[in-house]
Structure formats: structure tokens, C-alpha cells
Amino acid sequence: MDGNNPQDPTHQVESARKAFEQEFGRFARFITTAELRLSLAEALAEESALRELKTRNLGKKSALAASKKLIGRVEPEARAAFGQLVQRTEAEIVKAIDQVEQRLSSYLETLRNERDSIDVTLPGRRPRLGHRHPITLVRERIEDIFVALGYAIEDDREIETDFYNFDALNIPQNHPARAPQDTFYTNAGLALRSQTSTVQIHAMQRRGAPVRMIAPGRVFRRDTPDPTHNPMFFQVEGLCVDEGITMAHLKGTVAEFLRRMFGPSTVTRFRPSYFPFTEPSAEFDFSCFKCGGEGCRICKYSGWIELGGSGMVHPNVLRAVGVDPERYSGFAFGLGIDRMCALMYGLDDIRLLFENDVRFLEQFE
Ligand code: DAH
Q1: Which residues have a Cβ under 8 Å from the Cβ of 349 and sit 6 or more positions away?
Q2: CA 327 to CA 317: how far, in whole Å?
Q3: Cα–ligand 1 centroid distance for 333 (angstroms)
Q4: Coil, helix or strand for 331?
């Protein structure tokens, strides 16, 4: 065989090897260099370039594959030597590519691990925890006190019929007591409740007598918002009906509630008043929790804070729910939670409670 003849099979193998060596030159550093400095994108590009080089030099259409097909065609005496040359050349190419492949793949793995690893020494990101609204805080304190006194908590609907909001509470059509409680009506003869007293009726219809319950909840009135009014606000209603309940029970219960709420030295006073659903009726005030009754800005220098209405449940209300007023008597009371909340936290505008400004709300708890 003549090594210089371009048609010579040996020459073909040699030129295939030369072509490979030339192409492979740029990958040699992956074997010789101790420390590689490539970005992940660069290393990935090298990996795919190597894959292409492999197909070109070892694939079905490579010069080497063509040389293999010649093995059977060389003269028998030269065949063994030629076959070995092809094999050796192939083995060398495979080995060279293998080395780079391994080096690249372990380098890529390191890069990926670095990218995905977490720095455990970094301070964690704390999830922002919410907390309860100031009105909820006050409501829950009220609930805890009454639950301890043996009262159940009733939760009821905010959309009502005239019957529950007015008639059953002894406020007939055209009664002037409806006027200050004008509310929001729907076309279907329903309205947003203007007072939590509605729950007295639901509770007695459901449970009959005796009954002891409080009902905190939202109420609505057609009021223009100002620092002391909002068209939606919160009340808590109280009702106790049993045999032999008197005004003394009312006064004792309200006084005990206020002592637990504002401290043992809190004094309560009752002033005669009028509500259609109670007879007799009284409004109650308590000695200012700030100045203890001496007079300050919170109590407007009167020493007293007005809190709510109360009275002995009117026999007509008991009759409306089928409770016998000859056998049972009871007391009821109602107070505004927002007002109490504003007083306790020294807010000069109750609208702050409903603006949902986190900078304001996060000051409580
Ligand atoms: N429902 C009354 C209001 O919204 C408050 C009230 C007064 C409730 C006297 C009562 C009561 O239970 O006995 O103005």
C-alpha cells in the first residue's frame, strides 16, 4: 500500500484521524487544564459542540465509518493490519471524546449544584403574620366575660325583615322610634338590620325561655360618616329571660361586666330612658377608665362615659315570640363595640377602624 495515494484506504484512515485531531484541538484543554473557568451557558455550549463533533467523527456518515466498510475490500494479506488500524484509530477517538465528555459533565454538575444550593447562613424571610382587628379584640374580651357568666354567643343574619328589626321589638309601622334607625332597604321588602336587638327575637324563637345570650354583630344605618358615625358599625346585644328576673339582675350583670372590662373599681350608673322593647328602660354609664371619675379629655370632663341602653324586656316582645310574660321576665341591653374600642384605644375618629390601613391596624394587639 502506498501511504501517499489519496485512494489508499490507509490514507483515508490517516486523514480521518488528522481531521479529528484538528477539530478536537479546542477541546484538549478539558483534559489538560486543572481548573476550568466557564459559565453554565458556556459549558452547555461546549457540551453540544462536543456532541456534534462526536457525530461527525464517529457517526454513520463519518470518514471512519466509511473506512470500516473498506475492510472487507482490501487484499487479504493487508486486511488484518488495515482492520487493526481502523480499530485503533476509532478507539483513540472514542477515548479522547470520552475524557472530555466526563470532565464536562462533572463540571456542569458542579455548576448546577452551585446554582441550586441554598446559603443556609442567610437570614430567613419571615412571613408577615396578620393579627386581629381592634374591634375583634374588644369583641372577644366582651365575649369571654359573658361566656364566664354563663351566656351563650349568638350569631345571626345581617339582612332582616321588618318583623325582626321592628314589629317584634314593639316598634309598629309609623312609630317614631323607626326614624333614627333608618337603614338600607332592598326591593324585596328586606333591610340591613339597624340593631342587634333582632337576635333577641331569633334566639327566643329558637330556644324559648329560659335563655341567656349575647349577640355581637354588624348593624347598618343611613348615617353620613363623621368622626363618631359610620353607616356600618358593631353592637353587642344581651338578653336574659327566666322566672323571677328583675332590674337588680340587670344592674348587677352590667356592673359586673364593666368591672371585668375596665377594672374592679369601675362604677356604673343607670339613667331612666325610653326604648320601645323595654319597660322600664335605662341608659347606663360607667366611671371613666382613664381618670377614674375626676374628669379628663376622654370623658369630656364629666367623669362618666355613656355606653348603652337597657331595660326589662317589654311583655309585647315576649308575647311576639310565644313566651308567657306572666311566667317569665327578663332584661336586655345593647352597646356599641366601635365606640368602646375608640374610647379604649384613644381614637379620635372611628372611621379609622374601617379604612383598612395596615399602618393604623398593626398598632394594636
Ligand atoms: N337596640 C338599641 C339601639 O340600637 C340598643 C338597646 C337599647 C338594646 C336597650 C337593648 C336595650 O337591648 O334594652 O339603639
Answers
A1: 227, 342
A2: 14
A3: 6
A4: strand
Helix segments in 221-285, DSSP class H = 247-262
pTM of the model: 0.68
Does the beta carbon of 276 sit less than 6 angstroms from any atom of ligand 1? no
Mean pLDDT, consecutive 10-residue stretches, the chain (365 aa), reads 64 93 92 88 94 95 92 90 94 95 94 87 87 95 98 97 95 89 87 97 97 98 91 97 98 98 96 98 95 91 95 98 98 96 92 93 88
All cell numbers assigned to 177? 322610634
- The helix (run of H) or strand (run of E) holding residue 287 is strand 278-287
- The answer to whether the CB of 336 is under 6 A from ligand 1 is no
Q: SS3 of 133, please?
A: coil
Would you tell me how many other CB atoms lie within 10 Å of the CB of residue 331?
A: 24
| Backbone dihedral region for residue 5 (phi beyond 0: left; psi -120 to 50: alpha; all else: beta) | beta
Ligand 1 within 6 A of CB of 197:
yes
Q: Which atom of ligand 1 is nearest to the CA of 331?
A: 13
Are 252 and 337 in contact, with CB atoms under 8 Å apart?
no
